[in-house]
Amino acid sequence: MQNAETVLGVLRERGRCGLPCNELYRQLFNPQLYLLAYGRIYANHGAMTPGVTSETVDGMSQRKIDRIIEAMRHERYRFHPVRRVHIPKKNGKTRPLGLPTWSDKLVGEVIRLLLEAYYEPMFSDRSHGFRPRRGCHTALREVDHTWTGTSWFIEGDIADCFGSLDHQVLLSILGEKIHDQRFLRLVRNMLTAGYLEDWKWGATLSGAPQG
C-alpha cells in the first residue's frame, strides 16, 4: 500500500501532464489517506460539533476507518444528511451551514485531498481563492507587483454561489478528466444526501453544503 504523499504526488504529476484519472475510487481503500485527512481536520473548531448523529472526532479509531474502507470496497458507504444551521452575516442576513457527521467529514476530506492534488496544477496562476498557500495576501501581492498603472478595479460577487451549484454541470466537469464512474457516483451521493433542519429532511437538488 503506497503512503498518502506518494499517492497525492502521483495525482499531482498526472494533473500537471493533463492525463486522465481512471482509477481514483480505489484510492479510497488506502488507510494512510484517512490518517492524513484526520490529521488535517481533527484540530478544527468544528471537530467536536456533531452532525445529525452524536459522532465527533472523539469516536475516531483505526477500526472505524477500516469499517469505512470496507463499505467503500462494496460501494455501501452512505452519506448522512447534513445538519443545517444558520449563521449571521455582516449584512444582517444569514448563511446556511451544513454540519456533516464525523465519518462523512473524514471521507469528504479524503475526497478533497485527492481532487486538490489532481486539479491544483491545472488552475490559473491568477486564481488565489480556496487554494493551498494562496489567499488575500498573495492576491494583493500580485496586484502590487504586476498591475502597475491600474487606477480602478471592478468588484463582483456570485450570489449564492455554493448554494446554487448545478450538480450535473459539476459532475460533467469532473467527468471530463475523471474516468471513474464509482468515484463520480460517490461525489453525487455526497451532494444529494440532503439536510435536516428542525429535524425535517430536505432534498439538496443543487448546491454544495458549507460546513
Automatic annotation (TrEMBL):
InterPro entries: DNA/RNA_pol_sf, GrpII_Intron_Splice-Mob/Def, RT_dom
The protein's name in its UniProt record: Reverse transcriptase domain-containing protein
Pfam families xrefs: RVT_1
Residue spans crossing the bilayer: none
Record-linked SUPFAM superfamilies: DNA/RNA polymerases
Species per Swiss-Prot/TrEMBL record: Streptomyces antimycoticus
Gene Ontology MF annotations: RNA-directed DNA polymerase activity
Domain Reverse transcriptase, chain residue ranges per copy: 68-211
Keywords associated with the record: Nucleotidyltransferase, RNA-directed DNA polymerase, Transferase
Keyword Nucleotidyltransferase applies: yes
